[in-house]
Amino acid sequence: MFKFLIYVKTQSLEDKLLENVRNFEEFSETVERKFQSLDEIIKDNMGSKLEKQKGRIMEELMVQLQLPNLQRNTPSEIQGESRAVTRNPMKPPTFDGKTSWLTYIKQFEAAAVANAWSSSDRTTALILALRGDASDILQTLPPEELQDYSKIIKRLAIFYRHYRLKNYKITLKLSSDWK
Q1: DSSP-derived 3-state class of residue 95
Q2: DSSP conformational letter for 67
């Protein structure tokens, strides 16, 4: 009789465990879908902001093309004043993988736009800004991808999206273990 009660109790616990595993998997899938939709929203928003920045840069270039001998001059110099203002280049922050990737890439892009970097300049600056585990990802890229800014960004975004999801799953598991 005692063995039967233990068997019944064990079965009940196994059933609950299986149900919890199914619920966790469904929840994980829901979280992943939400991350994907957030990524799409962010890409859409960044795209429109980048288009606005591109328009501003194009306007600035047009002004510079119309006044080729006054390259990077201030409005006061254009009016004849001799006071020159030089802008210091903005240094992008470093990234070691411990902070949010989305926050970092927004800051990096802001520095890139402010410095009017080309894609090649962005690639070089990004490679130099990576530290620790984040720089180790570069070793997994084939040499031709190390020259392609968009491919480096894509690889880092994919890695840190999965890294964030994995850490989130571990946190959920640990919190459910303590209940």
Answers
A1: strand
A2: S
132 phi-psi bin (left φ>0, alpha ψ -120 to 50, beta other): left
Residues 75 and 100 in one domain: no
178 DSSP assignment: T
Task: Count each helix (H run) and each strand (E run) in the chain, helices first.
Answer: 6, 0
Residues 93 and 73 in one domain: no
Same domain for 119 and 56: no
Structural domains counted in the chain = 2
DSSP single-letter state for residue 93 = P
- Report d(CA 179, CA 159) in Å as an integer: 31
Which residues sit opposite 130 in a β-bridge? 95
β-sheet bridge partners, residue 95: 130
**The tokens 């989305």 sit on which residue?**
102
Tokens of 134: 């984040």
Residue position matching structure tokens 């090649």: 120
Q: Collapsing DSSP states into helix, strand and coil, what is residue 11?
A: helix
pTM equals 0.46
CB 104 within 8 A of CB 45: no
Tens-digit pLDDT profile for residues 25-73: 888 788 888 878 877 777 777 777 777 777 777 766 666 555 444 334 4
